[in-house]
Write a structure and sequence with these properties.
By secondary structure, this protein is α/β, with parallel strands linked by helices. Helices cover 50% and strands 18% of the residues. The chain has one domain: Rossmann fold (3-Layer(aba) Sandwich), CATH 3.40.50.150. It has helices at residues 5-12, 16-21, 40-56, 59-73, 90-102, 115-127, 162-175, 189-202, 206-218, 222-231, 253-257; strands at 79-84, 106-112, 133-136, 148-154, 176-185, 238-242, 246-252. A seven-stranded mixed sheet has the order 3-2-1-4-5-7-6, sandwiched between helices. The longest helix is centred in the first third of the chain and has 17 residues, at 40-56. It is globular.
Length: 258
């Protein structure tokens, strides 16, 4: 028998004071969004709320300089991009809009383990009249498809154990033709406070209210990201810090061969 949603909320919620005190060490906790058989309407409401937050924090803008760089290096080809753990597809759609404004020829795809997320991403993309492709896959336990010039993931790494995070980086590096980009939170007191406030201002979803602060507790700090990249064999990886308390990990085959 599946637990009621209210019971899950009570079981997974952690007091802000406890999260604040524990930020010195990474605390990876179960989140509501990751629970099986989550109510589809509640799931969709949460993804829409996260999409608003991602838009305000300009998640896709962190990724776009890498897209622009590849487009300039290879102006004659259509740039193929895969966004791993795409959720409701808001990052893919934002990237497509930016590419269209700059005249970049892009073929953007997204994948997610959740069939509900993939369905929402497809519907939202179709509603905007965008040409994109979304599919369901388990990015941790199955190889990523090849033939993509750029493989990205945004706000996914903090959901993973260190072993799975390293495995994902290896898988992305093995599959990409040119470059990988990883955008995520930085675990800090500033980010915890901003997340607690932002999730409540920008979404009515109790899932977002609970999962947002939990995500900060599960996020990596910059030295931990650097260690993950090194362990995954990403020679020449670069880590850039962005406001508000975000980072971008960038690695390319050219950097690895130099």
């Amino acid at each position: 028998m599946q637990p009621k949603f209210a019971d899950l909320q009570a079981a997974l919620a952690v007091p802000m004071t406890q999260l604040w005190v524990e930020l010195g060490q990474r605390q990876l906790r179960p989140e509501l969004m990751d629970q099986p058989n989550l109510d589809p309407q509640a799931h969709q409401a949460a993804m829409l709320g996260l999409g608003r937050i991602n838009s305000l924090t300009r998640s896709a803008s962190c990724l776009f300089p890498g897209i622009r760089r590849l487009a300039k290096l290879y102006p004659a080809r259509r740039l193929r991009l895969l966004d791993v753990a795409c959720g409701g597809g808001d990052t893919v759609r934002a990237v497509i809009r930016m590419a269209q404004r700059e005249g970049i020829n892009i073929d953007a795809h997204g994948c997610d383990i959740s069939s509900e997320a993939v369905a929402l991403a497809r519907a939202a993309s179709e509603a905007e009249g965008m040409e994109s492709h979304f599919f369901q896959t388990d990015a941790i336990n199955a190889p990523l498809p090849g033939s993509y010039h750029l493989i990205t993931t945004s706000l996914f790494l903090h959901h993973l154990t260190e072993a799975d995070a390293e495995s994902l980086l290896r898988s992305m590096a093995a599959a990409t033709l040119d470059q990988l980009l990883v955008h995520d939170l930085i675990r800090s007191h500033v980010d915890l406070m901003l997340t607690w406030i932002g999730t409540r201002l920008l979404s009515r979803s109790p899932i977002v209210h609970i999962d947002g602060p939990l995500s900060v507790g599960g996020a990596f700090q910059l030295d931990e990201v650097a260690q993950l990249a090194s362990s995954a064999g990403l020679v020449g990886a670069e880590i850039t810090r962005f406001w508000p308390e975000r980072f971008l990990l960038s690695w390319s085959r050219n950097a690895a061969s130099n």
